[in-house]
Amino acid sequence: MYIFLIVWLFILCAIHNYASGTVKKYNNDLFFVICFFTACALIIGLRSNQVGRDTHTYEEYFYQNSAYSIIDIVKGNTNIAVEKAFLICMKISSLIVNNYYFFQILVSITYTFFSAKVILKHCDDVVLGCFLFLGLDLFLLSLNIQRQMLSIMVAIYGWSLLFGNYAKGNNTLSLFRKKYFENNRFYWIKGSTLLALSVMIHKSSFVIIAALLIYLVRGDRKKIKMIFFVVAALCLSLASFMPIVSKIMPGYHNYFKNAKTIQSAGMVMVIWVFVLLLAIYILFNEKKFNNDEAIMAVYSSIYVFMNIAGLSFNYAERIGVCFIPFSIISITFFNSKIHNKEIQFALKMALECGFAFYFILSSSSSQYLYSSFI
Which among 106, 113, 58 is positioned nearest to 83, based on CA atoms? Predict the structure, then answer.
């Protein structure tokens, strides 16, 4: 099934290239993104409860939750350790069709919709953006930790509406100015609502909201660099604090050096090195990359640093996952700024083939062995 997705992606690439020059770029990109993410939504939504570690658990939660009223859910009178907004969505879905797979399809459509919106808006090269979507595990993770992934993409789209003047061909942000707020009131309200909703779906999205504070210093490149070093120091020193934390709060002992849940890293380390070096290059190349792009680079580095911390600090990588979309944005705008078209094309091909290959390797894991409920 995953090979089919790669083949379908390459077919779409051929169609996209053929139509280039004869069809308006936006229409060409839109058709490509719709076709790709429709396939993603079908594969994610039609998977059986045997695909991914958490799918079966969410199926059990769904049927347990269907026995409660919405009032009970709002009051917290359930024994389900899941955020209320997600439980309410489950309940509403069960009132329409009391079948878990119907709810799973709705989640997959919502997740891929927000993913498509972000890539279409923030990736000048949507083809490369879709390859990165696969290669940086945003697709596979949605098969496993669907609630967190949905929360992340809702939050990222909320960020896009709030600070979304950073888009294709527009590198100027006027946020925090009264005139900007007055002219974009609807987007601020909608974006803020989505950010709040993301936290109510999965609390980990709060780190995205916290990270948005960096925009307060977006006019000062030195401060952005300073934040980069502070973030690096904090993330990489997490493991040093955990023995102390586990002594004070024994309940958190599981978060440190648990061999059953500790993250292992293989070829993904190559990706980490690539993303981190790229982030550093963008951050310190002030002539070529503006402050908004430097902020994207800082966010990308958090993805890497938290995954490195995850080698000894359980679940730290789950925080890093929140910043994967920013890595996609950073890589695509970096490639688009290469003036030599031959080098740009060569790098694009290398990235697409490399991430496609890594996606195929990642999908061979036993937890992702695909089967459908149909």
Answer: 58
